[in-house]
Q: What sequence folds into this?
């Protein structure tokens, strides 16, 4: 416990950084039939453990506040409608990230009667992050670069 | 075990480690109404409906022939059978006569076919907004016609939080069906991986409760420790969640050379006392009036602490030797069980010449999700997110 307070105190006393603040990006996550593997790693990325906020990544809950849609899962036929609705409700300019092999092209579930086959079958994808699942570090690197590019 | 008359007179075929009884409709109804059984799972296979029943002496399988698309329902006697009957109707097209819940579970008219595993036909009627089934990926259909080795990657993706446990249950079902042995070193490595997964799951659940209760220090501590667990798992088994590390016949690869040291360091450095004290200090007040959530929180913490202590003993009992045996391409059926983070996982496989002809992969979510939904609905509005985090059941496990 003391270590935590010491850390907070040190950070409070640290002089403000000279580097410009990173460009922020508001991400809206939509699970479109994922096995939960990508969610497990994504939740870790969103937690304090990886410093996603310092890299400009902000997670939001509503399409109206989002700059980019973060899609996981092979896009099950049952979730196509919900994904389309989220996209329709996002203001321009809006972008899409396919997170994980399933969202990139359906992954191992490609060809199933129950999946559309990746985010690209419903919305236009701007960034594909491969991996099954990608690690939080891989997500952070790709998303931080994506935020800067926007 | 004193067999019920309906079972004594039924044709029985082996389904290691248990038996499958082939019942007439009359005997099926008798078993349905008999006391002493609970229905754990229900699925269909080649014109039959199969029930996995738990009795005092362990699980048994009972099956009944489907007549012109109909079979007698179990749900009036066994309420947990209801979601399975809805699933059987959506995936195989077989209707439970007298079933308690006629609503669809997975098929809301968005698939290009109806009854994909029964007699597929073009969908009729307009699609409806799905109330469930968002995570349905058609996994059972993807297993068909593949060898257990080739199909293992689907079992590993039933539920990401229990990928190791599902892979073990699947491997055991394939090994039981194929009458195959597993090297003892592989058994030891499976136990080790399952323990690491349960450690991570305990931390994940505790972290989710902390997040819902806005206990930020505890949430951050859980995230940090979970990162340490995943990093050690990647060093030992080449994947942070150990996905695809367990395969039918053994394990895909032996533990990496730096693996044991990484796991010993993990067990040594995980601050067990600090975590327990922080959990109690952060959550005791918030959970005082929520006994279910408090119990789930204690269970998650206990799991994390116990599994941490088990890491080194499990490393110590690893036997030298091979890690993978070949599977003979034979015919037969088998049941595989593994303890996952949220309870027993059971997989059933029927092989024909070494290829999967029938399968069902049963996640504890089938039992837990209806109970969790009822508890969340009964809770005060301000407590619902916290109850949901404490009982947390991901959709993918049961929606397949």
A:
């Amino acid at each position: 416990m003391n270590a935590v307070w010491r850390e907070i105190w040190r950070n409070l006393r640290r002089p403000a950084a000279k580097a410009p603040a990173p460009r922020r990006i508001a991400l809206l996550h939509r699970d479109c039939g994922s096995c939960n593997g990508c969610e497990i790693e994504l939740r870790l990325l969103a937690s304090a453990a990886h410093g996603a906020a310092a890299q400009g990544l902000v997670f939001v809950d509503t399409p109206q506040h989002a700059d980019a849609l973060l899609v996981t899962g092979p896009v099950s036929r049952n979730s196509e409608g919900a994904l389309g609705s989220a996209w329709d409700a996002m203001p321009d300019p809006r972008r899409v990230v396919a997170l994980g092999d399933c969202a990139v092209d359906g992954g191992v579930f490609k060809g199933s009667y129950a999946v559309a086959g990746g985010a690209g079958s419903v919305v236009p994808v701007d960034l594909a992050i491969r991996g099954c699942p990608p690690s939080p570090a891989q997500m952070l690197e790709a998303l931080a670069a994506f935020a800067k590019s926007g | 075990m004193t067999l019920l008359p309906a079972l004594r007179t039924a044709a029985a075929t082996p389904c290691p480690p248990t038996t499958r009884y082939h019942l007439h409709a009359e005997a099926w109804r008798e078993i349905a109404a008999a006391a002493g059984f609970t229905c754990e799972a229900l699925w269909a296979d080649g014109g039959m409906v199969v029930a996995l029943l738990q009795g005092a002496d362990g699980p048994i399988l009972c099956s009944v022939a489907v007549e012109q698309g109909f079979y007698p329902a179990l749900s009036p006697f066994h309420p947990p059978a209801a979601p399975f009957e809805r699933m059987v109707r959506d995936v195989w097209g077989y209707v439970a006569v007298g079933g308690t819940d006629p609503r669809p579970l997975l098929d809301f008219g968005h698939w290009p076919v109806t009854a994909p595993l029964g007699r597929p036909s073009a969908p009729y009627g307009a699609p409806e907004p799905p109330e469930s089934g968002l995570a349905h990926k058609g996994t059972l259909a993807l297993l068909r016609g593949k060898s257990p080795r080739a199909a293992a990657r689907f079992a590993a993706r039933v539920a990401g939080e229990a990928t190791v446990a599902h892979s073990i249950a699947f491997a055991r079902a394939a090994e039981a069906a194929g009458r195959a042995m597993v090297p003892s070193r592989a058994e030891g490595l499976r136990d080790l991986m399952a323990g690491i997964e349960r450690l991570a799951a305990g931390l994940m659940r505790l972290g989710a409760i902390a997040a819902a209760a806005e206990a930020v220090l505890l949430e951050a501590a859980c995230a940090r420790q979970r990162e340490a667990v995943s990093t050690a798992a990647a060093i030992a088994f080449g994947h942070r969640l150990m996905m695809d590390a367990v395969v039918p016949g053994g394990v895909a690869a032996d533990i990496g050379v730096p693996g044991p040291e990484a796991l010993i360091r993990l067990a040594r450095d995980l601050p067990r006392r600090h975590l327990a004290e922080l959990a109690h200090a952060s959550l005791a007040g918030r959970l005082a009036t929520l006994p279910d959530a408090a119990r789930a929180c204690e269970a998650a913490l206990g799991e994390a602490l116990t599994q941490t202590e088990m890491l080194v003993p499990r490393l110590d009992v690893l036997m030298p030797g091979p890690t993978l045996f070949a599977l003979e391409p034979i015919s037969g059926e088998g049941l595989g069980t593994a303890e996952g983070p949220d309870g027993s996982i059971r997989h059933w496989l029927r092989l024909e010449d070494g290829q999967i002809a029938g399968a069902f992969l049963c996640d504890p979510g089938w039992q837990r999700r209806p109970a969790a939904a009822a508890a969340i609905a009964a809770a005060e509005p301000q407590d619902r997110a916290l109850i949901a985090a404490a009982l947390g059941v991901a959709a993918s496990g049961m929606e397949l």
Notes: The beta strands of chain A are 25-31, 57-60, 68-72, 95-99, 127-129.
